Fold this sequence. Notes:
Blueprint: E1 4-8, E2 15-16, E3 25-26, H1 36-42, E4 49-52, H2 53-56, H3 60-64, E5 72-76, H4 82-95, E6 100-104, H5 106-110, H6 112-116, E7 124-126, H7 131-138, E8 149-153, E9 156-159, H8 176-182, E10 197-200, E11 203-204, E12 225-226, H9 229-242, E13 248-251, H10 260-273, E14 277-281, H11 287-295, E15 298-306, H12 310-315, H13 322-335, E16 338-345, H14 352-365, E17 369-374, H15 382-390, H16 418-433, H17 436-448, H18 450-472
Parallel strand pairs: 1-4, 1-5, 5-6, 6-7, 10-13, 13-14, 14-15, 15-16, 16-17
Antiparallel strand pairs: 2-3, 7-8, 8-9, 11-12
Helix pairs in contact: 1-7, 9-10, 10-11, 11-13, 14-16, 17-18
Amino acid sequence: MMKTLFLNPPSFDGFDGGAGARYQAKREVRSFWYPTWLAQPAALVPDSRLVDAPARGLSLDDVVAMADDFELAVLHTSTPSFRSDVKVVEALKSANPQLMIGLVGAHVAVSPEPSILASQAIDFVARNEFDFTIKEIAEGRPLAEVDGVTYKVDGRAVHNRERAVLHDMDRLPFVTPIYHRDLVPEDYFIGYLKHPYVSLYTGRGCKSRCTFCLWPQTIGGHTYRTRSPGHVIKEIALAKELFPQVKEFFFDDDTFTDDRPRAEEIARGLGHLGVTWSCNAKANVPYETLKVLRDNGLRLLLVGYESGNQQILHNIKKGMRIEVARKFTEDCHKLGIVIHGTFILGLPGETRETIEETIRFATEINPHTIQVSLAAPYPGTFLYDQAAENGWLVRQDGDLVHDDGFQISSLAYPNLSQQEIFDAVATFYKRFYFRPGKIADITMEMLRSWEMMKRRLREGVEFMHFLNAREMAP
Ligand code: SF4
């Protein structure tokens, strides 16, 4: 086996571009997801090492100093961080010219040729689902014989055949022993999760076809491929022992609730373990299922509402009806399940009126916390192609973030400018959070726990900085 480094490279300060972040950007409140997509192949390669530079606060010099210790380096990249990641590759290569270096992630899956040709220092890119691709390379198999790889011969890109999609997900070893070996759980903050938390996947892929959503259109696919409930419960039982300090487990599957009988079965197993857990959900889970989940330790659901306008939900193929989302949210409130709701401004069909409708919808259904993002046309998505065809892309360079890592407003429509969409994000946050009822909720939450008081005060300062920066930004 080659001595292998799995690296989440350093980029913008506080940039969550990791191998676990769906929408890579610097957030309004500093946050980091676990680099699960790198931990998974790391678990297949004995004696490897996983380094998460942004979460650990490591600089380029820090990671370059490691170059001599390894024979193979696998870096996770993304569209917003690609140029910066190539600089890291080049620095590693000049420190150790013998080091074989490969890139993984949705960006190289969508654009393998431009990616491999971006620098002499990149030896290969592993397209789509790359776990076993990396394992075979680490075993020393020649690149020409590894499915799913793009590499160079005489300066030209060569694309090997696609790797077969993995269906037996129980073949993937547990990631939590890798977290335990190489990561520090206290480094990972997500505003709406308890701290410290641990996140992992119990399956990949999403049967929905939302036009903006990157992973199911690239590495995950549109079938929800799952680990068996027993496999998941066993890992959580182990993780509970490995991380006695962890207060919450988060299942980051695209839509954990898509397979309801399985979700209920896993929940019952978690109930026996007595852990607190949370997951991603679509706003269509019936009351009976929600109750089973809640009765077995479910604390929070991360719900992508996206918009409060039905036509926009149709336009983005969300497969969701507003009245179903309302009923689901009421049910969660009744059951005491906390919701972090996510919304996107600037999706196709957006107007000043639909923005207003979405803000009103959010305040009416009243999730505990929200996240408001700008529509991000990632290459490889239906939204990107649609925006390119219709002339909605305002950035010819395709950049999705500013030099400081914050999201750029990348789309504009004949009746709605890029600036109006950008400004509406801060308006949305202010109208949602600066309401007497919401301020009272958050104050109560702080008064109940000193931990929460410290945390919310820190986040509050970061959030106000974010709003001020927005007001000054173009
Ligand atoms: S339901 Fe969620 S994860 Fe699935 S395609 Fe839509 S946005 Fe993506």
